[in-house]
């Protein structure tokens, strides 16, 4: 036996000893900036290119991708489960009422995944692609960027019920919203900060007509919404029209609808908030203090926003050998049933531990 192979054997047994001391999942636990720098150095660029191309065609994809990441993270953690298509036997998250038909941007993730698979097969998770895409969307719409810790693995389970049970409703009160975010280990301040994402994007009528018609069982308009704004919204969304025109949308921040800035908060204090849940930020003095802070300093909101996005991106992530690296973001890998989770490399197609 050559001394080289001897050294190799000593080395591998040392590695085995270390691995025995620290189970692989624990070694891999925790996300890391630059996770793909060795295994797929072009990954983040390829995502950025896909997002930039889509944004050039339709700036609305930025809002769509940021919300997709939020809806991924709040339902079974940031595991790409929101991207999975329904099958004959399973109605997926994306087809639950809070998501359908409003979620958008799936084709951008598909394009990024396709480009990445061509360069580095079976290496980059859909959950990470989505986290990168949300960051790139924020950069394009808001001229602010941040580093995204990565190393998420993809989940194999996606159900309409978990989407319904975990996504906050636009009819929520302040204490409900705080409670919903606390369940995800996010603070009341994170909730106010992240709600600022409503500075871009659109909404369907059904998410806010509660404030326009039959408010509190009267025929009145919610008194906290500007009457001029309510008049405009009623013209866009006539009474009982949601069911006939379910795809009619309106901008959520009427001051600067496509720019990621602090005008969402400015709108709130001018009675231009759209949802009951937006208006709710003014009903509690602690939350309102944050709103006022962000009106005073857009810079402060942006720096806090990107930090809260990173925090949100860390919710219940799968790492190490948990889950899998999905080959198509819409379909769990062959050989995995979708009924198990966190059960190691044997049921996934990808067993290599990526650079950590
Ligand atoms: C605080 C609780 C929240 C509630 C109740 C809520 C609710 C909603 C609703 C109802 C819509 C419109 C859907 C439709 O009818 O078309 C929407 C859109 C949107 N939400 Fe939220 N949201 C919340 C928090 C967040 C967070 C944390 C983010 C991201 C960080 C976010 C980002 C967005 C974006 C970007 C849109 C526009 C999507 C598009 O134009 O495609 N929201 N949200
Ligand atoms: C461009 O955006 C429109 C919607 O605004 C969409 O229907 C179309 O598919 C997009 N085209 C490309 C190439 O992404
Ligand atoms: C759906 O379930 C049936 C019965 O359990 C099974 O035979 C079939 O293969 C399943 N189809 C899919 C697409 O998983
Ligand atoms: C983008 O931000 C940079 C620095 O944060 C600033 O110098 C630049 O003027 C901004 N660009 C626009 C278009 O706002
Ligand atoms: C989920 O989808 C199933 C059909 O697969 C349906 O029967 C059920 O009502 C849906 N549940 C929710 C909460 O949307
Ligand atoms: C949000 O909080 C309210 C009040 O605690 C609760 O009834 C509701 O089920 C929660 N929703 C979610 C999605 O966590
Ligand atoms: C919240 O934090 C606790 C304690 O660290 C952890 O056990 C729990 O899994 C976390 N929950 C979420 C949704 O991240
Ligand atoms: C509206 O009326 C229903 C049924 O009478 C009641 O359950 C509900 O609490 C009322 N809502 C408000 C806001 O008063
Ligand atoms: C909307 O429909 C409800 C019952 O579905 C009805 O009571 C109400 O009068 C309708 N509102 C208008 C403005 O037509
Ligand atoms: C406002 O919200 C904060 C944060 O959730 C909470 O601690 C406080 O009790 C609330 N204040 C009131 C008056 O409801």
Q: What's the short story on this structure?
A:
It contains 14 helices and two strands; from the N terminus they run H-H-H-H-H-H-H-H-H-E-H-E-H-H-H-H. The longest helix is centred in the N-terminal third of the chain and has 19 residues, at 3-21. The protein has 356 residues and is mainly alpha-helical.
Describe this structure in words.
The protein is mainly α. The chain has 14 helices and two strands, in the order αααααααααβαβαααα. The chain has a two-stranded antiparallel sheet. The longest helix is centred in the first third of the chain and has 19 residues. The chain starts with a helix and ends in a 44-residue tail after the last helix. The structure holds protoporphyrin IX containing FE (HEM) and 2-acetamido-2-deoxy-beta-D-glucopyranose (9 copies). One 2-acetamido-2-deoxy-beta-D-glucopyranose binds next to loops.
Topology:
Layout: H1 3-21, H2 24-28, H3 43-57, H4 60-74, H5 106-119, H6 126-142, H7 160-166, H8 174-182, H9 188-195, E1 202-204, H10 227-236, E2 249-251, H11 263-268, H12 276-279, H13 285-296, H14 298-312
Antiparallel strand pairs: 1-2
Bound molecules: protoporphyrin IX containing FE and 2-acetamido-2-deoxy-beta-D-glucopyranose (NAG) (9 copies).
